[in-house]
Amino acid sequence: MLHAGARSLGATAAGARHSAAAGAQLLSRTPLRGAVHRASALPAAPAPPTRRVRRTAVAAVPSVVPPPAAGTTHESINGRVVSAEALFSSAYLFSLPAVQRPYDWADDNTLQLLEDLLDSLGDDAAQPIADKEQYMLGLITLSESTPGGGAYSRKHIIDGQQRIITLALILAAARERLLTAASGSGGAGGAAPSPDDKSARAYSQMAASLEKRLFQLGDPATDLEDQPRIQLKSQADTGFLTALLTDLEFVRRRGREVHCEGSSQPKLWANMQAVNVRMADMDAAVCMQLAKYILQKVTFIVTLSSSFSLALRVFKT
């Protein structure tokens, strides 16, 4: 079963660049800020203590691909830098193969990633998001679940489920905070002032944009049905995660008992509540900037293989 250890990734200085080999070596050995997990083929082990260290930019995909198994033909792989905006689009619907271990990030890992993203966003509200530093969040290894792939076809996550799911939880919490602000109820305890009409409209529009990224809406013109962005190994876990990402009434059951099954659901719930509490007192304008920063500037190196077996070979290399 694949194992996810605690790792994270970012950038040391604007414009810093490394070779593909250096990037691959760094990803495989450096404990990084934000507690990003790197899977291995070893049995599950307790996550090591997280440490806050400087982030390192990686701008290339390792070019060495292991040879295909004997008798295998027509396998292909491509790698590129992909933004979170693209990752949460119709081009990427995710599923977890049976070999993946359950989601297991603790809330301190999630909050550390959130604080790291806020640090990278910075305090200069006047600086356009486009001018801010890119935040590289590591390697994602995927495989096509159907021949040919393409939009609306699911990709198996071989490596990267902890980061993808956690980033989705953070975006969902941002959506809830923006909807709360747009309704005029302010922050926790109603401490924040009600927004003017222009701000309320902007918050609502941003929240609607986030919802479309967290859940893939269907298209009646092409007979495509609504689909969860992330499909976990069981229907129960998939439904639970989808409710966390899209159902405000479910998420707002803070302090009330929620029935969680298995090993993933308690951690998904705890992480969502921890991020919601952190964002409750956050200024809505900052929350909206954070959501924009994540979508525009958080990037991954994504390798997409034509087959599951090839993706596993790449992952183990």
Automatic annotation (TrEMBL):
It comes from the Eukaryota. Pfam families: GmrSD_N. Residues 87-251 form the GmrSD restriction endonucleases N-terminal domain. PANTHER family: DUF262 DOMAIN-CONTAINING PROTEIN (PTHR35149:SF2), SLL5132 PROTEIN (PTHR35149). This is GmrSD restriction endonucleases N-terminal domain-containing protein. It comes from Raphidocelis subcapitata. The lineage of its organism: Eukaryota, Viridiplantae, Chlorophyta, core chlorophytes, Chlorophyceae.
